[in-house]
Every structure is written in structure tokens, then in C-alpha cells.
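User: Earlier you gave me the apo prediction for this protein. Now I'd like the version with zinc ion bound, so I can compare the two side by side. Same sequence as before, with the ligand SMILES added.
Assistant: Got it. Here's the input I'm using:
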Amino acid sequence: MPLLTRRSTALERRTMVLSSPPPEPQSKTSPSLSSPRRTGLLEACTNPGCGSGWLHLWRSRSAPLIEGGWTCSAACTAERLKAAVARELDGRGTAVEKHRHRIPLGLLMLEQGWITSSQLRGALQGQRDNGAGRLGHWLVAREGVSEQLVTRALGLQWSCPVLPLASHDPEGLAPLLPRLFLDAFGALPLRIAAGKLLYLGFEDRLDPILALALERISGLRVESGLVQGSLFQPAHTRMLQAAFPSVELLEAASEPALVRALARRVEHVRPVESRLVRVHDCLWLRMWSRPQTGPLPELSSVQDVICTIAGS
Ligand SMILES: [Zn+2]
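And here is the structure of the complex with zinc ion:
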């Protein structure tokens, strides 16, 4: 590009920057991915410690974006990710993870008059004799209690709804999360309602940490519930066979090494958006290479990195 043109463009840009309103404070809610703002040269770098001043106006890059904010250089990308990683790791052991006392399933069902004490004793015996299986399983298998009733009791135990599994579309829902999470945490995305609510099913216990992570990544409100086991299992197996977004597993030796590795990925992909959340013992970085057109991510435009710090 001729110097003159380039210079005038830069001046124009600077004028626009000066006349544009100050950036809004970072909001807690995720910016919408479906209506991307034109970002980059007209915006300030979102690394609070950015030292490039006006220099970044000459840098011709409009990506990457990290949690809705543009960074002007690889160094600023690393700083933003460092802050995000520290934030997520600090959140370890938050209230959501603390063990909440739940009424034992057997007692709950006994109280409701849904089973007799002899059925409860029989199921406990079955569990002891076999050294395996949840109580609900033995109530059904050995005592002939209906599975619907056990699921209903689990719903009471977890204070959550029992969700139906009608018109399940595993292929369409698979881009929502890495296959590994579906497998490891026994979750099953069920459907999206009104373009903003995701129903997330579990077989016998909820995973509020995964639900929260999914909410923060997808921008959808996640409603967790239980699905009757005999319906859940085949649907879960079917969904595991669907096509999931590409994923990279990363184990770093330390937090700084992790930040460096993530920054390299982000600088390489230059996503139009990227978000980092913690899911149990790992961090999940999702990168979108194109603006999205609907509530469900497009399979080919998202990439996941799942990372852990060795020995943590
Ligand atoms: Zn910067």
C-alpha cells in the first residue's frame, strides 16, 4: 500500500477513535456472538497494561478477540489470557462445588410412600451383595419399583425437573461442547428452546459446574434436569458418535507455561471470539473462527482446547 494512502487511512482511523465514545465497561454477561461488532482498528486494546499507545492503530489486525475484547499484539493476548487463567483458577472450590447434603434416595422414596421398607432393605442388600450399582438401579432391578418413580425421586432429591427426550438431535447439538465432557461428566444436551435456553440432561446426578461452564461459553441459559436412565443411555451413546468440534488436549507444566501455550493458539487461530472457563480440573478455551448465525455453534467454525496443569 502506498505510504500516503496508508498514512491518511491511519489518520482517519485515529480521528474515528478520538471521536468515538469511550469503551463500555466490561460487562459480566457474554457479548452476543451472533451480532459481532466491527472491532479491531477502531477499538482500544483490551489489555489494561497495553503499552503500545497509538502504535496499535497501525497494526492491521482485527482479531483475535478474547471475551469480546480485541488485543493489539501477541504480548497483549498473553496478558489477557494470563488474567483469564488466574481468574478461573482462583475460582476453584467455589460454593457451587461444595457438597450439599441431600436426603438419601431410599429415605426420600420411603417418606413419599413410593416404596416399602422391605423394598428399601432389599435394594440395599442387592447393592451390598454386588458391591456396585446405585440404589435406584436395585430398586428397579430387584424390587420391581418403576423407573419413572425412581427418576421422579431423583428429581426431588436434586430439586430439578425430569426432562423429556423428545425429538433429540444429537448431530445438531454436538457442537455445543467437547465430546470429552459429554463422556466424562455424563451430560446430554437435549434441546434449545426459544433460541436462548438449553436443556441439559443427566442420568442420576446434576453437574452444576459443567452447566455453568456451558452457560458462560454458549451465552445460553442452561436448565439442568434428569432424564430417565433407559432413555438417557441410548441417546447418550448415540450422541457420542456424532461429529464434535476439533479439540486439542494440552497439559502444561505450570500456569505461565499454560498461558504461553494458550496465547500461541489464540494468536495462530485469530478467532473472532474466544472464551475461557474452568470445568472441574481443567480449563476449556473455545475459539470461534467466524461470527455465528444462530444459538448453536457451527461445527466447522469452533475449536476447543482443553487444558490442565500437570500435578494440579
Ligand atoms: Zn495492546
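For your comparison, keep in mind: Residues 37-77 form one domain.
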